[in-house]
Amino acid sequence: MGSLETGRARRPRSRGKGSSAASDVYKSQSLPYGDGAERDPRFADMVRDLRLPVTLFLTDRVVGPGYGRFARLLSVGAGLQNHTLDHTALRDLPYAGQRAEICGQRDKLHARFGVRPRLLRPPYGLWDATTVRAAADCQVRALVLWRAVMTDTRLRYAHGPHALRPGDIVLVTAGDDDVDGPPLHTRTTRLLRAIQREGLTVGRLEDYL
Predict the structure, then answer these.
(1) Are the C-beta atoms of 152 and 183 separated by less than 8 Å?
(2) Which one-letter DSSP state was computed for residue 148?
């Protein structure tokens, strides 16, 4: 299995090989969000008012019948990408299982929203060489990982300096396990202030990948 630094991206190729992507030269951060982004109506207002370039990674098992609630976020400019059908850890799954998870969610998103996701955020950040091959066969052009996470209270770093750097991908959580924490728009406001303190801006993930 090849190695990949968290916070970077891997571009799948048809033969299962990949090359490192996502350059550090850009003075920007990318903000991926998960399935809970639709629960805070003020978050959609924030995305619209600030023209905030955010990307939603959806998994069918979590969203279930709630796909319609994401329509407003999409209408104000949020990107929509793949987070698998069942949120299963892909690493060590056979090719057929990984392909079913990735292509299955691709087909769900296309049927419901008319989009064909080209980015995949592997659940738990776990992947292997088979993931790269299966993703390429599902028309995914990059696997997205992250170096930092904005939790309910603070930024948490997976590795490296405990400070934001140009090119970082920062995951903003909004899961069922932290429903008592601050709402998503509050977490995002805190993150934007941290980004501004470092003299950085927010860039659209799809523009770099």
Answers:
(1) no
(2) E
